[in-house]
Every structure is written in structure tokens, then in C-alpha cells.
Amino acid sequence: MKLTILGCYSATPRTFTNPTSQVLEIRNHLFLIDCGEGTQVQLRKYKVKFSRIKHIFISHLHGDHFFGLPGLISTFRLLGRESELHIYGPKGIKEAITLFLKLGDSWTNYPLIFHELNAKDSELVFEDEQVSVHTIPLEHRVYTNGFLFKEKPYPRKLNIDAVEEHEIDRSQFNNIKNGASGVTENGVSISNADLTLDPPKPKSYAFCSDTIYNETIVPIIANADMLYHESTFLETESKLCKKTKHSTAKQAALIAQKADVGGLILGHYSTRYKSIDLFKEEALEVFPNVELADDGKSFTI
Amino acid sequence: MKLTILGCYSATPRTFTNPTSQVLEIRNHLFLIDCGEGTQVQLRKYKVKFSRIKHIFISHLHGDHFFGLPGLISTFRLLGRESELHIYGPKGIKEAITLFLKLGDSWTNYPLIFHELNAKDSELVFEDEQVSVHTIPLEHRVYTNGFLFKEKPYPRKLNIDAVEEHEIDRSQFNNIKNGASGVTENGVSISNADLTLDPPKPKSYAFCSDTIYNETIVPIIANADMLYHESTFLETESKLCKKTKHSTAKQAALIAQKADVGGLILGHYSTRYKSIDLFKEEALEVFPNVELADDGKSFTI
């Protein structure tokens, strides 16, 4: 899994920072997560292959998380897209995008499919043979979901030495990878455990932005390999969190600690601070494995 | 009058070019004309004082001319704006912007006033003591207006030598600037012409984008000091103009010639050409005073 941060600053775009957007490469998918203004330019800047994006997940309908979506949808049309585009986001997103396209008499020439969300509990919103995506209900000023991206278990790995030793026929390999026993030329059954090795552990990534400190998400994101949790403020401004429904770096770290995740990526920084290193320092006091998101930065999970 | 081009390329924003937006400084006003995605970042990049913008003119509701508007309106709120913001644009713009703000529960805390346009003939849409703005009905795929910005006549300039020679009292100066005669201490009337000099000629700027070649605009923009006319294509692609309702550089120059304008600025270039110099070359064959718009470039009119 590879995560690329296209933008990770809160509020208004500036010449040198961008609002929230991320690209997650997971198995054969390229998922776009949130789409602040300028996302399509960031996609170009970091040479992401536009056409591979088939699923866009929008956390909430604040401008810094979705004002880039009408433009990206239009650009796909201008680039001659033909394949389906699926948009997952809060109820209302379909009406908003549809109105913008209607006003410009600019309907897409590819299928644009909206999956509007309004559930209060975590729900499965996407699934195929390799990946699942669940919502993570967050508490913000408007209806908001994070998203939990999980790889499904890989097939078991063939133990080449063992299958050669037992002279197992190649025609059985796929079944063995999926858990079957093998049979030798002489009809002797060999257990799957003797013919295979453990596959890589499937990974998971939890995206949580924007949200106030909210422990109810802990069971949903428990043991995720990587957690992105917003940290708009430092503890010195913690009283702003209640009104704005944002979190501090320390609170993000507390959630990471309680959920026992593999690592924590901080982001959605208020632009009032002179260095984002301050967020890392604060979080490290609570949780050991902290990374800082920054525009253009990539993480291998 | 000073015109700053924030973006002047057609279709999709790229890392090095921006969709249409311009800032016009005219008398005491700073007008924003069109607002493609990323305009607020361009405003920052070229250090335009945001807060001075009180009037935004939107030609039409294609994305490359207005998808930056929701973000700019939101940013004004975040920056604590209190003064009125007037938006002039096609019918439907109010519903679109209002829906976006409603979905984010992000109403402005300053007065946001929409002036929706649907007239087919040129009309006065803004006027004060110093400036007037008329629409220029254009012919494009959707309802579109250009805008004609005109300075009102300046007051006459006091001829300092003459008023001193005639010992005209200072209390009469304002009246004289506005056309009155002067009266000496001895009660002798001195004609206004003898006490004043001609003021600078009021200037005008016509913005015409997007449009197919359309001679009906010629009487409206006749004798404008500067004309911005879209030139999406070169003559080699002229057959695309009919379907897309755009113009070639040559057609823009023909309009400039027929309207006898002071100068022509080309823009809204298709990104298919390797150099925008080709547009200038083509237009110069028809009209002598041609300039090329480019992102960040300023023109004094």
C-alpha cells in the first residue's frame, strides 16, 4: 500500500500548501480520498495516473475537502474518460455535483455513480476480492466519515522447494494457494501446511479527518497498520477544539495509542503555527511512531 | 486602469497554467472577472489585496470560469470579511453557490449579494460616480456575457497658472473642476475654459470570453481602449469553432478591427498548441496592436 499526500493543510489553499486530498494505492486500486480545491493540479504535479482513479471517497462537504471535485469530474470528461467513476460521500453530494454540471450543460460522457452516505454506524461501502472499505463515523460540525481501507488476506504462498520435492503437478498450484492439500503422482495427500508458506499479512489504513477527539472510533480502527488522524491544533489551542470540532496532536496520539495502530500520520494542520514539527513533538509524548503528512510526501504502509 | 491576468488558458488547470480569471483595477475599484479553480491561490501569488474585491463578474457557468468561486467565497469568510460582496453572473449562480454553502453549513458572515443575469441585450449592471459596467451578450454553448468596464469622465483639471493669475479664491476650485466659471475678487467672471485644462480621457475595457465570432458585439465595444477577446483556436482548427462556439485568433482580430479598439489582448488558448506566439502572429495579420495574455501578466490601459 502506498499513500501519497496531495494536500494536508486545513482551511484555505495557499501558494505553498493545499487542502486535504490523498491518493491510496492498494492492490490494483487507486483510491482518491477527499478532493480540496486544486486537487487535479496536485495529481498532475505528482504524476498520478488520473485515469486509474475509479473510486473517490469524500469525508464531508466542507470546501477544503471537496471543492476540487466538480473540476476533477469535468477534467475527466475533457480527457475522454469512458470508465465508471464512483463517488462515495455524504448525502447531498449528488445534488451539488449534478447542479454544477447542469449549469454548465456539461454532463459527463462516462458513468458517474454516486453512493450517498447517511448512516450513523460504520458500514461497508466498497468491497471486491482484494479490498474492503468501511466508513468510520466521525464527529465534526457537519456529517462526516473517515474511511478504513483493508486488504483482504493474500492467498498462501507456494513453498517451491516442497512442491518440487513432492513432485506436485502444476495444475494443483492455484488450489493449493487457496488452502487445498496436494496430491502426489502416487496418490499420496500432502497437507497444505507442508506445501505453502504464510503470505504477507494484509494491511489496513484508517483515514480520520475531520473530527473532534472521539474514542468511539477506537474499536473500528483497532490495530490498523497506519492511521491518519487530523491534528488541526496543538494543546495550547485545545479550547478551540470544542467549538470547531477538531483535534489536537496529543488527542490524535491518544486515539492511536488506544487503537494500538502501527503508526500515526498527522495532518490537517492549522496554518497558525510556524512549524509542523511542533505537532510531531506533541504527539510523540503519547505515541512512539508518529509521521508528519506534508504535500507531496508518500508513505509505504 | 490596470489589468492583471490570473489565468487565461482554456479547459483544465495544469501545474503551470490557470483557467480564466482577471483582476481589473479601475478608479477606486478592484473588480474580479471570472473565477476558475485556483483563483484564490493566484490572487495570493500575485499579492492582490483580497479584501478590496467587492464585485465579482462571472461570464458563464463553465467550470474553467467559475469553479473557483465557492472556495473564494469561503475564504473571505475565514479571513473575517465583513463588507458586502456582489456577484454578477448568469441565472443559477445563486442556487449553486447557496447549495455549496448550505451543504457545508458554512454561511458567510458578510453580506453576499447576487445579481443574476438573463437579459439577451446589453444592460447596465453596475454604476457609481466613477465607473459603469455593461454586459456584452456573447454567443457560447451556455448563456454568456462579456463585460464592458468604463470610466466616467474625470473632472476638469485646474490650470494652476491661470487661477493664480486671476487670483481666484480656493473656495471656488471644486466648482470650477466640475465646469463652473470663476469670479475674481473684483467680481469679474472668467470662463471655465480659461481656468481649466482637459482632464485625462476616460478609459474603457471590454472583456469578451467565451464566444464564437459574433459581429453583433461590435457596436457595444466600439472604440474601447482595450479589448480582451478569446482566441481558443488558430485558423487551422477553425472548423472546431462552430461546434465548440469559440473563436480563432484571426476572428478576435477581425472583431478588434471592426470595433476600432485601441488594443487587443488574446487569451483562453487551447493547450494543444506548442507556443502562444502563434496566436499573436495570426492576429497581427489583421490588426496591428495585439498583446498576449499570460498568467501573472499585467497591462496598463
TrEMBL record, chains A, B:
Binds 2 Zn(2+) ions. Zn(2+) 2 binds at D64, H65, D210, H268. The gene is rnz. SUPFAM superfamilies: Metallo-hydrolase/oxidoreductase. One of its GO terms (molecular function) is zinc ion binding. PANTHER family: ZINC PHOSPHODIESTERASE ELAC PROTEIN 1. This is Ribonuclease Z. Its cofactor is Zn(2+). The lineage of its organism: Bacteria, Pseudomonadati, Bacteroidota, Flavobacteriia, Flavobacteriales. Keywords: Endonuclease, Hydrolase, Metal-binding, Nuclease, tRNA processing, Zinc. Homodimer.
